[in-house]
Amino acid sequence: MLNITTFFLKKSIFLITISQYNLPIMKELLYLKDEQIKDFIQLLFYAYRETSADPKKILAENLFGPAHLRALNLIERNPGTNLGELMYQLKVTKQSLNRVLRDLLKSKMIKQIKDEEDTRKKNIFLDKDGKLFFDKVYSKQKKRIFNALKNSEPESVIKFKEVLNRIINGKS
Q1: pLDDT at residue 142 is higher than 50
Q2: Could you tell me if 15 and 100 lie in one domain?
Q3: Within this chain, do residues 27 and 76 fall inside the same structural domain, yes or no?
Q4: What is the pLDDT of residue 52?
Q5: DSSP 8-class letter at 32
Q6: pLDDT per residue over 16-60, tens digit each?
Q7: Which residues contact 149 (CB under 8 A, 6 or more apart)?
Q8: 52 and 2 in a common domain
Q9: Number of structural domains in the chain
Q10: What is the pLDDT of residue 126?
């Protein structure tokens, strides 16, 4: 009985504390409903759709698609990554990734260099053309993201990043 009383007492104190700081949003989020979660999922979808649509024309001019963009992003952010690491990060098969990498190699966007320690591995880097292409694509995407972050409260930006990381990492 004491444990139940303690639980409700702590919960009441927590809710009173939230009320004191006038945080009605937090009260609402304490009891997330399916509709709210569906709204978040839909917003994530729209945010991804719009961010990836910004450079669509540039990608199409080079006969590239979203898979090429995802690979370029990871290679740019992780210079020297290898096939296995890319497969793991993209969660795709070797066959699927090889098709994309073949296109990028053929168009001189990336280069593969044998690993000095393990010659069976090839480290992947953006080539000169790949860096220029990535910068062009990035500048399109940057505008949308930069404006959204600039027009948000600093605390919101930090919390948003925390939530995204929890979604990505599956942490509760």
Answers
A1: yes
A2: no
A3: no
A4: 86
A5: -
A6: 444 455 455 555 566 678 888 899 899 999 998 998 888 999 999
A7: 157
A8: no
A9: 2
A10: 97
Beta strands in 1-154 (DSSP E): 81-82, 110-114, 122-126
Does 42 share its domain with 68?
yes
Q: What are the DSSP calls for 86-103, one per residue?
A: HHHHHT--HHHHHHHHHH
Distances, alpha carbon 111 to alpha carbons 101, 149, 166, in Å: 10, 33, 33
Instruction: For residues 89 and 105, give the distance between their C-alpha atoms in angstroms, rounded to a whole number.
Output: 20
Q: Could you tell me if 16 and 69 lie in one domain?
A: no
| Tokens encoding 31 | 């009891």
Burial bucket for residue 55 (CB in 10 Å: 0-12, 13-18, 19+): buried
Q: State mean pLDDT over 105-128.
A: 93
The whole domain housing 7 covers 1-31
SS3 108: coil
Backbone dihedral region for residue 22 (phi beyond 0: left; psi -120 to 50: alpha; all else: beta): left
Specify the pLDDT at position 77: 96
User: Same domain for 79 and 4?
Assistant: no
DSSP-assigned letter for residue 113:
E
Using CB atoms within 10 Å of the CB of residue 82, give its burial: 0 to 12 exposed, 13 to 18 middle, 19+ buried: middle
Distance CA 142, CA 22 (A): 34
